[in-house]
What does this fold into?
Amino acid sequence: MAYDCTDLSAFEGVMVFCEQRGGKLMSTDFELISEGRKLADERSVELTGVLLGDGVEGLVPELGGYGADRIIVCNDPRLANYTTDAYADVITDVIHEEKPEIFLVGASNIGRDLAPRLAARLHTGLTADCTHLDIDMNKYLDFLRTGSTLKVDDMKWKMEDINLKMTRPAFGGHLLATIICPRFRPCMSTVRPGVMKKAPFDEAKAAACKTTMFDVKLDDAKLKTKVLEVVKEARNIVDLLGAEVIVSVGQGIANDPQKGIALAQELADVLGGVVGASRAVVDAGWITADHQVGQTGKTVRPKIYIALGISGAIQHKAGMQDSELIIAVNKNALAPIFEVADYGITGDLWKVVPMMIEAAKAAKGV
Amino acid sequence: MNIFVCVKQVPDTTGKVAVKDDGTLDRASMATITNPDDLNAVEAALTLRDEIADAKVIIVVMGPPAAASMIHELLAMGADEAVLISGREFGGSDTFATSQIIAAGIKTYGLGEGDIVFCGRQAIDGDTAQVGPQIAEKLGIPQVTYAAGIKYEAGKVTVKRMLEDGYMTVETQTPCLITCIKELNKPRYMSVKGILEFDTKPYYVYDYEKLKDDPLIEADTIGLKGSPTNIFKSFTPPQKGVGQMLEGSGKETVDKLFNILLEKHVI
It folds into this structure.
């Protein structure tokens, strides 16, 4: 049957793009498979992953353990490293053949390159950087009851809506918007790394996961990009997503950015954490972008988040408000950061932070 | 050689943001700026133009007529020509529809074999990073995103493409589209000469009439009606429960905080 993106009934199933780099899966893959499992169960359909690389079928059980029913494996030496050309061509072929209703991609630097290219080619909608996904209206309204200020029960809703409801921060994180793609399939979204929760790994599911070897057809004449080398970061990239403690700095360090960052680093070192930063600090060039927390940076949920001299624009709060415990220091008692803080100190960070370092040392016995 | 740069005028979301009662953004009350990543794209284009004989930089903007003030600044920075794509028919476009329109604009101007299109990585109002790759697809040319370094040599472009855990060196050929990140360069300022000369430079306005014969422009591929995605609901998140403001800011207060942390076994 011919492929028709407007024939909604021809599309079925949830499909996840599983990204590998150097033959290793990304942790986003497991988050998306776990989330995809929930969506597939709501629709009582199959959850498949599509995995591209060169000899990557050995990774299938790892994906199965998080809930995938089947992995479509596309092997070719030209797929070992990601290129837009080759990946978009092969995945287009997979989607033409499999016709999934929903297609999810991790919002990594690679996912955000691939997904828009695919959506444009497939003539369908794409929602970027989603932080919440729902199909069932009851579940969506439950989410709105706790996740919005809407008076959900006083409003009229179309309860039979079965579109994927994709929620994302909008306008720099000042608002949240739920987007749908009602007229075309597949419904596509990129999903923020670190937001969806990983399911527990299940050995039985890992063993039961099926493999489909896909017949890769690539035309060298159409491949216009070549990867000359892949270099693992030599500079010290900060692991915000893996950190248990994050000490972040904001515009409050403007008088002496270097000293402010050094103080934050010292406090982070004592507490076994890393240094984060607001967008203003990164935009000013005081620290590299890998430190950025917020809507355009990373979404983090550490055990302790300490915000120093950060006013707390919604853009920043969007990336840290789910931290287990938030401590804020700001000289402005009305700074919005205090709205999400568990403990707040109104004071001058240049005076308070050195005292915090001493207190932390005493508490840690160092 | 034509070097196109796609630029967006955006509300300054880093400052105070006004939200209307219906939960949408009150754009009229907000200052507008040139999207920050796009300035890096402009700089990349100007740098390349300065190295090559017979090259010109063409600014391509989709937006309301009021975007002219921003375009004047970009011409004063040194761009050679500008195209403003503007029309009521284009309003309400999502990224898919927007890329159809901008690609049609570039085709209408004329995209040659040796040409390059630069974009910023993403715009600060939507943060999607989708329009660049979607324009590339609609033009049928290769793309390289997240460029932190660019080398050009006779129809061949080598790009340092950033990843979260390092980078790739990618080689591609013209025509191609490259999206730029702020690590790529430091945008130049307007020059006095540029400010004196900007209004002598070619400035084209492409409306629906001008673009409508391009196959990319159909009633069901542009504007609100041609946008595959729709807003189902927009809303503001609730504030988290009230925390505890500690009194004072001296040593006693800090010690009290750390005692609480110790008692709660969080450190």
Q: What stands out?
A: Chain A has two domains: 8-222, 245-364. The two ends of chain A are 70 Å apart (CA to CA). The longest helix of chain A spans residues 27-43. The CA atoms of residues 115 and 138 of chain A lie 29 Å apart.
